[in-house]
Amino acid sequence: MLIRKAPDLRFSDITPKPLYLRRREFLQTAGGAALGAAAAAMAPPFAASANAQAKTAAHGAKLADVKKSPLSTTGEMLTSFDDITSYNNFYEYGYEKDDPKQNAWHLKPRPWTITVEGYAARKGTFGFDEFIKPFPLEERVYRMRCVEAWSMVIPWVGIPLKDVIASFQPTPQAKYVEFVTAFNPAQMPAQTTRILPWPYVEGLRMDEAMNPLAILAVGLYEETLPNQDGAPIRLVTPWKYGFKGGKSIVKIRLVDYQPKNTWQVMAPAEYGFYANVNPNVNHPRWRQDSERRIGEFFRRKTLMFNGYADQVASMYTGMDLKKNY
Ligand SMILES: Nc1nc2c(c(=O)[nH]1)N[C@H]1C(S)=C(S)[C@@H](COP(=O)(O)O)O[C@H]1N2
Ligand SMILES: [Mo]
After folding, report:
1. How confident is the model at residue 59 (pLDDT cuts 50, 70, 90)?
2. Which domains does the chain have, with CATH numbers?
3. Which of 241, 248, 229 lies closest to 204, judged by CA?
4. pLDDT the model gives residue 40
5. Atom number of ligand 1 nearest to Cα 91
6. What is the pTM of this model?
7. Ligand 1 first shell, C-beta below 6 A
8. What is the C-alpha separation between 115 and 250, in angstroms, rounded?
9. At 292, is the secondary structure helix, strand, or coil?
């Protein structure tokens, strides 16, 4: 077999998919010398085993006792596991869609702790298992739409955010919920760069967080969450654009101010606080009245609140949704 030079072994976003797939095969079958070369091409401390890269498509552990939720969206074709785990936005691992799949194996999602802070009677730092244990594991199939005008249908497994928030016993001063995600440059390679201000932060108004549709996802397709999708725990609010879904959450804060989300800080002219899917308000760079479902060819119409208006529209009555985007 031809042993490629080290730079050629690096996965590049400009590499066409079929070629890239062949390179994966190459990595899986090549001997230690080639693997060593691939590892050497990556900047330290991310020069660990290229072998591990080959494992990025690996499935997670099967989740037990998952009950199907009546709040699932029905009648939609599910996006494939492969697409859900290979076309991602997760800037901690790089800004191209296939960077997370390539780089997220660096993350160790266990042990993991989640800290609860702010205006609540029950606070503290909880281990992941302890944190999720009191709540039912539910499968929630949701349409998901990114502001970049692509969408997927994902069979999440999660716990209801409203039950989680209620268990903290928020005090009346708690008006918003802030979600702070992991800052761990040793495991999240792109956090050594300044492509975003780290850590990535998201926020919801209290009633949004208490809406029955909001979940903290811990899995998909009945398996533990793949790293590139936000292991071990991430926010999912299907009526909002994808960037609301902060991944790899480490802190939940009950606050009395409207949290500034990362994208709002980065580009205030492009991103607001609410981020409700609204086909009538165009993003400066992407149309919002239609979308491409990953795996499909033709575009489809984008629905108000991503099709969840019946469940969520009442939270925004009286608000100008062109201003509060
Ligand atoms: N921590 C973190 N969470 C994040 C992001 C990110 O860059 N970092 N990207 C967001 C964006 S823009 C989208 S569209 C969704 C994508 O989720 P998915 O890759 O599981 O489909 O994650 C969101 N959560
Ligand atoms: Mo997004």
Report:
1. confident
2. 10-316 (3.90.420.10)
3. 241
4. 36
5. 7
6. 0.85
7. 88-92, 146, 181, 200, 229-230, 242-243, 245-248
8. 6
9. strand
